[in-house]
Amino acid sequence: MMKFHIIPKPQSFTVSGGEAVFALDDMLNFQVGIGCKNAAKDLSDFISKVFGFDPMGSGSETVSFELDRTGKDESYRLSVSEHQIQIKAHDEAGAFYAVQTLKQLLLQSKGTLPALQIDDYPVCSYRGFMLDVSRYFFTVEAVKLFLDAMALHKLNVFHWHLTDDQGWRVEIYSKLLLAQIGSQRAYTNFGKTPHGGFYSKADIEEIVRYAHERYIKVIPEIDSPGHVVSAIAAYPSLSCFNRQLDVSTHSGIKNDVLCVGKESTFSFMFDVLDEICEMFPDKIVHLGGDEVPTKRWKLCPDCQRRMEELGLTDEKGLHAYYINRLASHLTEKGVQPVMWYDESSDNRYNSDIIFQYWGQKDVPDGLTSEANGERKVISSRSDAFYLDLPYGKINLKQTYENDAFVDGFEKSDNLLGAEACLWTEYVPSMAKAGYCTFPRLGAFSENVWTEKKNRDFKEFLAGLKAYERLLDTLPFDYASKKQAMPWPLRKYGYLLWFERRKLHWQGLHNLIDDRKVEKEAENRI
After folding, report:
1. Residue 383: which H helix or E strand, with range?
2. Host domain of residue 18
3. Residue from 182, 248, 152, 236 nearest 466 by CA
4. Which of 59, 136, 207, 363 is positioned for an S-S bond with 408, CB 3.0–4.6 A?
5. Backbone dihedral angles phi then psi of residue 453, each to the nearest 5 degrees
6. Exposed (0-12), middle (13-18) or buried (19+): which is 81, by Cβ within 10 Å?
7. CA pair distance 409, 416, nearest whole angstrom
8. Residue 201 half-sphere exposure, CB side, CA atoms within 13 Å?
C-alpha cells in the first residue's frame, strides 16, 4: 500500500486498498458545481504544467466539485473511488484547499490513485504569512510566487510590510514623494549598490486580485510612528525638527520618528490611510507601532506640549494616543486596525485593535489578561515563526513544535491564529528568501492547519522529499533537511550573525547623530 505524505497533514486520511482505481489521463472529465470554478481551474492549470496535457473532458475518469455547505468553514471531503475523484466542500475556499491536497496525491502517485477518503479542515481561522518588501523590494511576479506558495500551504492571510526606514513601497497619489523619494536608497547591507522600487496602484490591484483568486486576504502594513525614515526623507516636516534625512541604508531601530505633537502629522497619515483603504478591499490595515524610541519626543516642544494638553505622564502614553487616533480613523471607515504588541503599554490601546504578538514563548501577563477579555490576538512568536532567522537559531523542529497556542492563549477564543514572518534585512534575493522560508513554511502550515493530536514531527520529516517535489513545481529554492536541522555547533554561527546585526543597531553613526540632534534641540530651547 502506497504511503502518502500530505503537508499540512489532513485531520483524517483513510486509504481503502492498495490497488489503483483512478488513473489520470488526457481525457479527464471535470464536473464543476456552482462556486467551484476557481478550484477546477487551479487543478487544470496544475495538470497542464506538471503532467503536460490539458484535460479534454470526454473520458471516463472524472473529477467532480460540489459545495454542500455542511461542516466547518474551509472544510472539505476528498474521495477517490473507481474512475472518480469527488470533492465536496463547505465553501469555495474548502474546494480550493481540496485541490491543494489532490496536487500532492497526484504528484506522489504519478497520477494513479487507490481508493481513499480525506476529511479535512483548519484548526486556525487566521493562517498568515508576512513578506517585508521595504528592506528589499520584490517584483510583482515574485510576490505572486509567494502567493502561489501560500495557496499550496493552505494559508489565507498575506501581511504585506510595505513601509519602513529603508523604503516606502506603495504609491500614494496625494503624497507622490513618498514613493518617488522614499523608495530609493543609496546602498544596502550587501554593498554599495543603490536599491529601490515601489508598487503602483495598478500593481496593487493586480496582486490583490491574484490573492483573492487563491482565497487569500491582503493586509497592508503602513508602519508608524517609528520605522519612518523613508517617509521623513520625502517630507521632512513629519519629523520633530524638520530634519533633512536620507532613506536609511541599514537595518536597526532609528531614533527619528513621526512628530506626534503636530496636528499636520495626523492629517498627513489620515490621507495616506484613506488611499490605502481604497486600494485594499479586505478592510484590515496594520499600523505597525513597534520599536518607537522616544528620544526625539522628549526633546520636541510640540510633543511635550501635546503631552501636557492630554495630561500624559510619559511618552508611552503619547505613543498610545497616536495609535488610537489612527485606529479610530480606520474603525470609522469600517476597517479593522492591527498593531504589533507593545508590552510596555498594556490597556492603553483601543480594545478593537488586534494585537500581533512577536515575543518569545512566555506570554506577558498583561497580554494574557487582554486576550482573555476583549482583545483579539495573532501569534507571530519570534522564537518559532520568524523565517529570516538562521536555522542555527530556529530549526525546523522548533517551527513545527512551538505551538501557536502557548500558555496564556490556549484557553482564549480571541487567539485568531498565527503568522510566519519573513523579514528581509538580510534576505536580498529570491534565492535567499526561498532558503529561509522552505521547508519552514511547511512546518508552520501544519502548525496552524492540523489538530495538535494529529501532528508528528517524525512523519513530517519522512515526507520532506515529497514536499520538495511539490516546491519544485513553483519553483522555489529551499533548505535541505541537513541545513534545516543543523548540528548544535551552528548556533555559534547564529551568534556571529547576531553580533554583526547588533553593530548595525548600535553603530557609531547612530550615536553621533543622536548627539547632534540633542545639541540642536538644546540650542533651540
Report:
1. none
2. 12-120
3. 152
4. 363
5. -65, -20
6. middle
7. 10
8. 10
Q: Which residues have C-beta within 8 Å of that of residue 112, sequence separation ≥ 6? A: 20, 22, 23, 24
Three-state SS sequence of 213-281: CCCCEEEEEEEECCCCHHHHHHCHHHECCCCCCCCCCCCCCCCCCECCCCHHHHHHHHHHHHHHHHHCC
User: By three-state DSSP, how is residue 489 classified?
Assistant: coil
503 strand-pairing partners: none
The identity of residue 119, as a single letter, is: D
Section 441-447 average pLDDT: 97
* pLDDT tens-digit map of 360-404: 767 777 787 887 788 899 999 888 999 999 999 999 999 999 877
- Say if residue 513's pLDDT is above 90: no
CA separation (Å) from 229 to 35, 135, 164, 239, 518?
Answer: 45, 12, 7, 9, 18
Per residue in 83-121, pLDDT (tens digit) is: 999 999 999 999 999 999 999 999 999 999 999 999 999
Distance separating the N- and C-terminal Cα atoms of the chain: 81
Sign of torsion, CA 97 70 121 29?
negative
Domain annotation covers residue 82: yes
Q: What count of residues does the chain have?
A: 525
The strand pair at 163-164 and 354-357 is best described as: unpaired
CATH of the domain at 41: 3.30.379.10
Does 69 fall in a domain? yes
Cell, residue 423: 523579514
> Which of these, 194, 143, 140, lies nearest to 166 by C-alpha position?
194
Question: Can you tell me the distance from the alpha carbon of 251 to that of 241, in angstroms, rounded to the nearest whole number?
Answer: 22
Beta carbons of 294 and 344 less than 8 angstroms apart: no
How many domains would you assign to the chain? 1
Number of other residues whose CB lies within 10 A of the CB of residue 397: 15
Q: What is the pLDDT of residue 455?
A: 95
DSSP secondary structure letters along 101-161: HHHHHHHHHTTEEEEEEEEE--S-SEEEEEEE-SSS---HHHHHHHHHHHHHTT--EEEEE
Does residue 46 fall inside a structural domain? yes
User: Is the pLDDT score of 491 beyond 90?
Assistant: no
Residue 29 lies in a domain: yes
Q: What is the pLDDT of residue 506?
A: 46
Q: Specify the amino acid at residue 170.
A: V
